[in-house]
Amino acid sequence: MPSDGVINFGDLIGQLKLLRVECRKCDRLGIYSVRQLALEYGREAKIPDWIELVTRDCPRKQPGNISDRCAASCPDLVRIVQQGPRDGGNDGA
User: Fold this and answer.
1) What are the E-state strand segments in 1-93?
2) pLDDT in tens, 9-64
3) Dihedral of CA 24/2/33/36: which sign?
4) What is the pTM of this model?
5) CA terminus-to-terminus distance, the chain
6) What is the C-alpha to C-alpha distance for residues 85 and 56, in angstroms, rounded to an integer?
7) Could you tell me which residues come within 8 angstroms of residue 84 by beta carbon, excluding any fewer than 6 positions away?
8) C-alpha neighbours within 13 Å on the C-beta side of residue 84
């Protein structure tokens, strides 16, 4: 993980093949190829910035909606943070 504590796509290579985005409030579910995301946005692109981008159309992000905000997250990242980085791992792709 980078020194600023924010996970980027490069951190996920070798750790995950697919990255899920879920929202328990609106039933959003997306599954994305980590390798493709790294190619499209760059290995240094930060996951929180990308989540903000991919959920920009969520009606719960509209101005004035402060009590029931979007709750989109990537649940697989919890496992990655708990495990810590792998040394020379291979994601099998």
Assistant:
1) 18-23, 28-33
2) 999 999 999 999 998 877 788 999 999 999 999 999 999 999 989 888 877 776 66
3) positive
4) 0.73
5) 21
6) 30
7) 1
8) 1
Confidence of residue 77 (pLDDT cuts 50, 70, 90): confident
C-alpha R_g of the chain: 14
- The residue length of the chain stands at 93
**Cα 34 to Cα 59, 66, 67, 70, distances in angstroms:** 26, 31, 32, 23
Q: Rounded to whole angstroms, what are the CA distances from 41 to 5, 64, 83?
A: 19, 30, 25
3-state secondary structure of 2: coil
